[in-house]
Each structure stands twice: as structure tokens, then as C-alpha cells.
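Exercise 7. Given the components listed, write out the predicted structure of the assembled complex. Treat all entries as one system.
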Amino acid sequence: MIDLTYQTGNSILHRTKPVIKFLGLIFCSVIVLLSKNLLCTLISVSLITILMVFANLSIKEVFSPLKKFFFFLIMIFLMNVLFTNSDECLYSYYFICISEKGIEQGYNIVLHTLTITVLSSVYIRTTTSIEIMKGIESAMQPLRVFNIPTKDIALIMSIALQFIPVFFNDIERIKKAQMARGANFNRGSFLDRIRSVIPLVIPAFISAFHRADELSIAIEARGFQSDKENT
Amino acid sequence: MELELRNVTVSYSSAEKILDNFNLEVNKGLFFGITGKSGSGKTTLLETICGFHKPEMGQVLFNNQNIYEGKFDTVSFRKKVQMVFQFPENQFFETDIRKEIEFGIKNTTLSSEDLNRRVTETLQTVGLNDNETEELSPFALSGGQKRRLALACALVLQPEILLLDEPFSGLDNSGQNQIIKILQNIKTKGTTILMVSHDPNVLCEIADRIIVMNDGRIIKNEIPPIVYSDKQFCSQLGIGQPDTITAANLLDVNLNNDFTYENFITKLAEKLLLKNND
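Answer.
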């Protein structure tokens, strides 16, 4: 189970204004994306350490919810290492070329993805859904001048963030149900394994669409109007 | 003993134990009703029996073999122990209901003729065997039909043990009655059933034993009359009493530990006749 929901606490990060946290998240993400190699490592390690102190979280608490994500990161790294085009190969075999450029690129992408994921997960875990919405809305306030529906965008983004763990839990539940019916996701050839994902993907999508449909009706039923200010 | 849980402890985080030193012996052919407050560990119990939660401590024994041991054949085990999850209609993905049912058995050694026969028999068991319905997409079925289809997906494997997690939730009265009839029919064929439900009327009607759970432990494992005749116990654990008991208490009718509607009507009629004769 991936635990990326709000966790009650009284850390500095919990008490920080939502708009500052949101702008901080965007700013740090941009800085991380613009840096490379050693500088990127330094910035990432520093940011994660500062966050751990400010959010009162241990290394285990920061990284354990992302355990399942590590497989995805390893895949990204391997894809970059094995398939990046380069004139200078350290080792080559048919179309595979392991080069310094590929290793460097894989390292940077993995570090960027990991750091931004950690930043976002700490943000979600220290900010309630209402605060997330308020933070995004306040940050986008200047865009109202151009008639951009900032309240709607804020609501959509906040719901999307909050529903990531719900979606993962849905997949976990469907996976169990299909395994109970005899599905096996870990056996057979590569093609069989791809095919075996169908019983997982279709119900997950249907469930997600149902949820979205029900949620939109519930939001309207509760009187949400994007053009009205909160009292 | 078909299934046994010995000192099983399961927890999602170190702080909270979902199943706490849990012991249960399940004899072949019996129908166990599992009830208790929300969060008492009922669903986790079924998932642990089905092999989805490795206990921190203790063993889950199926025919005297620990199902969580490395050598244990989980794939063939899951064909013998089938679980129908809560709101199982969310697992459908095939284009028609025959294919949906076939999904579970297409990897078995059955010939295509046997496979077809097995699917047809299962469709008959759950009452979805008319030609028009068979060609429908699972998503085009009504709520009750979807629930019966989910049951069929499990039954097609002819399991020795069937685990049901609140099979009646969200169903109307007729849908519920149809599922009860199917379960009574399966029970006569000797399948062991463990069913989680909050409905004391249904549990009293079809279960041989009632397991009452609270905080990951069994509080009571008894025949329905013993569990449901104790009003204070039922209200303390929030499991409710069957309507017949409530009505019998109000009308001062002695049911003699038989809480079926038929017995209630008979006893009530007897009492009224006696009163008239007096």
C-alpha cells in the first residue's frame, strides 16, 4: 500500500503557509531540473535533508512510501544506459551501446525524478487537501487578470494529487481480486506478461472514470461554483 | 481439518495489529458467518486465508500445509480456495460474460469441451444461463446479475473453500434472495464457505456457525442461536439481532432457538390460538 496521504503533525513544514509551500515546491523542482551531475546531487541531497528536518521525518519515513517506485527508477536508468546514442561506446553489443553519456543522462534523470517525487510526497504528507487547493489558488491569483479559472484549476490539481494514493490502492485491490480468480502476473513470456496486465488496466480505468464521474456529481451537489468566492 | 489458523498475527504497520494471535479451525462443508464492527479485521482475515497477507507470526494451514511456506504451490491453492471481494463487479474486463467466467479456468488442463460444459453449468448455478444474457457484456448487467456473475467466476473453479466479503452490500431484496439461494445450493454440495456479513437475518438463516470479531480477535465462535440470543452481547458489539428475535421479544413468543421466519410464524400462531382457546 502506498501511503501518500496527509499525516497530522506540528512540524515547521506543517505550519508553513500553503502558498509558500506550493511556490517552494515549484521553485525547488525547477532548480533541480536545471542542475546536472555533481551540482544536482548536492542540491538534491541538501533539499531532502532540509525537508526531513523541517517536516520532522526520518529517512525511512521519506523513502519507504516510494519503495514500489524504485523499480520504475531502475528501469529509467537502464533504458538510458543501454539505449542512448553515442559515438564513444564503453561497451557495445548489436544495437546496445553503453556510453559515459548514457550513464550520465540516466543518473541525472533518475536523480531529477527521485528528488521531485520526494519533494511532492513530503508536500502532500504535510498539507491537507484544502490547504493544497488554497495554496495553488493563491499562487495562481495573478492569472485571474487574464480570466483564467484559477479556482477550477486549483481544485483539479488538488483532487489529482489526493487521488494518486487512492488510485494505487484501487490497482492493488483489483490485482488481488484477479489473482484470487487465477491471474498470474509474474509468469510466462514477455508477451504473456504484457497481456496479463489487461485484467488489471481495464478495471482500473473503469473504476477511475466511475470515481471521477461520481466525484463531479458530488462536488456539484455540494454547491461548488467556480465563479463564486468563499464566504 | 481443512483449514486452520494458528496464532496468526497480521499488521499493516508496527503500531496496529489487524489480526491479533488469531486461532480458527474450519471443518469441511460448514458455513461460517463472520461478523463484527467495521475495522475488526474481517476482510483481512479472508485475505490472509487467501494468501495475500503473510502473517508476522503464526501459520495458515490448508490440509496441514502452511500456505505461506516457500515451497507451497500458491497457484493451485488459489484454485481450491476462491475469494469474492467486496463490490466484485469492479474486476470485470472481458467482452461477454462467458469469457469473463472462462478467465479463471483457461489456464487449467481442461479440454475446450469440458471448459465449455463447466462454464454452462456454472451459468446455470447462478441463473444467468439464458442465451440472451450470455451474450451480454458484463458491464450491461444489473447490479444483482453482476454480483451473481462475480460469484460464477469463483464457482467455475469448483473451489473447496469459498470466501465471500459482504456479498450482499448494495443489493436489493430480490438480488439478495437470489444470492442466498445460490449459496444454500453450493452448501449442499459440500463447499466450505466463510462469509463476511453485517446482516444478522441472513447469517442466522444460512450459517452453521457465527464468528464474532473485535479488534482482530474472535470474541465468539458459536452456533447462531447462542450468539444472537444474547441481546446485551449483540448490542455491545454492534452486530444486531435477527428481526425474528426482536419481534419475538416484543410479542413474548418463545422461539426455542430456531430463529427462522417459518418458526416465528408457527410459534406466534400457536400462541394466538392458545390465547383464543383460553
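Discussion: Residues 3-241 of chain B form a domain with the Rossmann fold fold (CATH 3.40.50.300). Strands of chain B lie at 3-13, 16-26, 31-36, 57-62, 65-66, 81-84, 161-165, 192-196, 209-214, 217-222.
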